[in-house]
Design brief:
single chain; alpha+beta; two-stranded antiparallel ribbon; Type I toxin-antitoxin system endodeoxyribonuclease toxin RalR; Toxin_RalR
Length: about 60
């Protein structure tokens, strides 16, 4: 399934994301480098986790 309003992968820039269901839990996965989110309770939650980005200075 193609998702609209999904940010590209923060690691490889790939715009293609798949949501997988494993034992009733959902996670979003990059179709380029296969990075993924933690598990969520719904498809919507998995996509929200995918789109979440940290802000500020993350340099140690």
């Amino acid at each position: 399934m193609r998702y609209d309003n999904v940010k590209p992968c923060p690691f490889c820039g790939c715009p293609s994301v798949t949501v997988k269901v494993i034992s009733g839990y959902y996670r979003a996965k990059c179709n380029g480098c296969e990075s993924r989110t933690g598990y969520g309770g719904s498809e919507k939650e998995a996509l929200e986790r995918w789109n979440k980005r940290t802000t500020g200075n993350n340099n140690g």
